């Protein structure tokens, strides 16, 4: 465990919040998880339990570790319940307005010494930090999805982030047994600056009729050895998140090469947000995913 950090608060109990809770609890941290939706918190606890149980059945975890890990994760129904945490990690929807609102509500409740981190995929750390009462204790800790499986975490300093904050974050991430890569604070950092234009291009390839969903994903899986096709991966990330990241790249770098594909916009407008919504480039409601185009 990282010296000064004992308790971690997580805001946003979606795919990422649950994954972060999972790895923190197994590393020995006490975890409090908050969401605007109580149902989402319940779902997150069930997801973590299911994923830990699968790790047990695959021999990656002892049953006693699962029990201990689960006992360390507690729901935080109100933002005020996070007042005692040493590190708060914001992992809510990729929308700057949502994140700013959370920080405005969270900061007055937070211990003044606590570090505040965001798991944003793309938004300026400096700009988010400037909306808080602690820009020097604010940092980007960017986990990859699925958190329990992916080895990388990007660390991003804002302009005001103090060295002690960075070093504490580095120690914390190392204690989770993840590898760190440091990115400067530019739109979408390193992984998503490279990955999302590739996914967006795959959606253009579909939009222009060059290939079907199946043809595109098969091509990239077998032709480039990617573990998932780009459309399957877009569904896995969440199409709302993909669109937000492209919008941040487009606005932040002012280059037309980042324009979000209109077909991506259409899927998001339909509420077909990918796996988490049951439908995206594939329909997940049956036994096997079926391409929607
Ligand atoms: N949560 C927890 N564990 C999961 C999981 C999930 N959602 N999905 C799969 N796993 C685990 C499985 O339980 C399995 O564990 P065991 O080895 O103990 O059996 C392991 O991962 C491998 O899973 P599978 O054998 O079922 O499936 P797979 O071999 O197809 O691997 C995958 C699944 C690891 C997700 C793989 O398909 C993959 O690497 N996909 C690409 C993921 C990727 O690119 N992530 C980055 C997205 S971008 C991002 O995160 C940044 C952003 O800001 C958008
Ligand atoms: P998600 O849609 O699965 O979950 C978002 C959660 O935030 C939901 O449970 C929602 O109820 C909650 N939320 C929204 N507004 C809130 C508020 N005001 N207060 C409390 N909770 C609120 O999204 P996700 O995929 O978990 O992504 C979360 C963050 O992690 C985003 O910033 C995203 O860019 C980033 N991220 C996502 C991925 C990915 O592959 N999905 C990877 C790395 C980072």
UniProtKB/TrEMBL annotation:
UniProt xrefs under Gene3D superfamilies = N-(1-d-carboxylethyl)-l-norvaline Dehydrogenase, domain 2 (1.10.1040.10), NAD(P)-binding Rossmann-like Domain (3.40.50.720)
State the Gene Ontology terms under molecular function. Answer: 3-hydroxybutyryl-CoA dehydrogenase activity; NAD+ binding
Q: Which Pfam families match?
A: 3HCDH, 3HCDH_N
Q: Which domain of life is it from?
A: Bacteria
- GO aspect biological process, one term: fatty acid metabolic process
EC assignment: the record states 1.1.1.157
List the InterPro entries hit by this protein, alphabetically.
3-OHacyl-CoA_DH, 3-OHacyl-CoA_DH_CS, 3-OHacyl-CoA_DH_NAD-bd, 3HC_DH_C, 6-PGluconate_DH-like_C_sf, 6PGD_dom2, NAD(P)-bd_dom_sf
Q: Which SUPFAM superfamilies match?
A: 6-phosphogluconate dehydrogenase C-terminal domain-like, NAD(P)-binding Rossmann-fold domains
* Broad EC category: oxidoreductase
- Record keywords, A-Z: NAD, Oxidoreductase
User: Positions of the site: Important for catalytic activity?
Assistant: 142
**Domain named 3-hydroxyacyl-CoA dehydrogenase NAD binding: which ranges?**
7-184
Q: Which PROSITE patterns match?
A: 3HCDH (PS00067)
Where do the annotations place NAD(+) binding?
12-17, 35, 94, 99, 121, 145, 276
Boundaries of each 3-hydroxyacyl-CoA dehydrogenase C-terminal domain copy? 189-284
Identify its protein family: Belongs to the 3-hydroxyacyl-CoA dehydrogenase family.
What name goes with this protein? 3-hydroxybutyryl-CoA dehydrogenase
Q: Which organism is it from?
A: Phyllobacterium endophyticum
